[in-house]
Amino acid sequence: MQNWDDLRLFLAVAREQSLSGAGKQLRLDPATLGRRVARLEKDLQAALFVKSPQGYALTEAGGQLMERAEAAEQAMRVARAGVSAPSDRLSGQIRIGAPDGCANFLLPQVCAGIVAENPGLDIQIVALPRVFNLSRREADMAIGVSAPTAGRLVVQKITDYHLHLAASAQYLQAHPKITQQADLQSHRLVGYIPDMIFDRELDYLGDLGEARVPLASNSVSVQVHMIQQGGGVGVVHDFSLPFAPGVQKILEHEVSLTRSFYLIRHADDQRNLRLSRFADQLITALRSEVAALEAKA
């Protein structure tokens, strides 16, 4: 029977598929980590990884140990949650992965409110323009713009949100009027870098038949700032408009998009009462915040 520390190191290497990546996560020197892995393989009398220049890939024995190690990890999570002092308040650390728009315009005030009510709670927001891998424990939970269908995940719809074309007042004053969608062909567009759109739901301009994007970024907040500075016309979240004075919706009735946010969790975490309570609070607060901000847009 291996101790938890051995399994913890093994899981980090298996998920990162490299000693350097796991070392950064664990704050261990890669050489030291390599020796620990070698010792674990010796103790088990089995090769757990196939080592190559491309990284560490699990062997069949490694895959079997991975299943047992993840079960032990979940048991540790449940045990820690069970021995915490009974309280109506949440505590400990929770990490949320979220797309850029949600992370910039919604989560700061929502999480500030939750922490104010739970002083012992630490919330970490990881804002990345990509899909999070919960199996590798990159986050305790993630917010996505589409519902994944693969993996051992639990998905809850949070809320719908709306998007419209928008531009700054200064841009609209200096350029030809936009009275119909066809007029966009003579205007400068702001949007995503086409080959960095990580989810089909984010290809707003593609859906409108617009191919060229003169001002582009993989960040929603950067796009909003570009539009606010008179860069051009782009699709923006209605909930971002209260944070961008001078930016106004155009062709509001002709071009109107609806998308959804989903809360995604690892299936094993359903038994973690602390995470479940936090998820309920997060969903309720996000629904309320989206509705309040869209009402101001």
Describe the structure.
With 297 residues, this protein is of the alpha/beta class. The protein has 3 domains: 4-83, Arc Repressor Mutant, subunit A, CATH 1.10.10; 92-159 and 260-296, 3-Layer(aba) Sandwich (D-Maltodextrin-Binding Protein, domain 2); 160-257, D-Maltodextrin-Binding Protein, domain 2 (3-Layer(aba) Sandwich). 40% of the residues lie in helices and 23% in strands. The strands form 2 sheets. Strands 3, 4, 5, 6, 7, 8, 9, 10 and 11 form a 9-stranded mixed β-sheet that branches. The N and C termini lie far apart (59 Å). The model has no long low-confidence stretch (mean pLDDT 86). This is LysR family transcriptional regulator.
Question: Mind sketching the topology for me?
Answer:
Elements lengths: L3 H13 L2 H8 L3 H15 L4 E4 L2 E4 L1 H24 L8 E7 L1 H6 L1 H11 L3 E7 L13 E4 L8 E16 H6 L14 E3 L12 H4 L7 E2 L3 H9 L4 E5 L9 E4 L5 E11 L6 H24 L1
Parallel strand pairs: 3-4, 3-5, 7-8, 7-9
Antiparallel strand pairs: 1-2, 5-11, 6-9, 6-10, 6-11
Helix pairs in contact: 1-2, 1-4, 2-3, 6-10
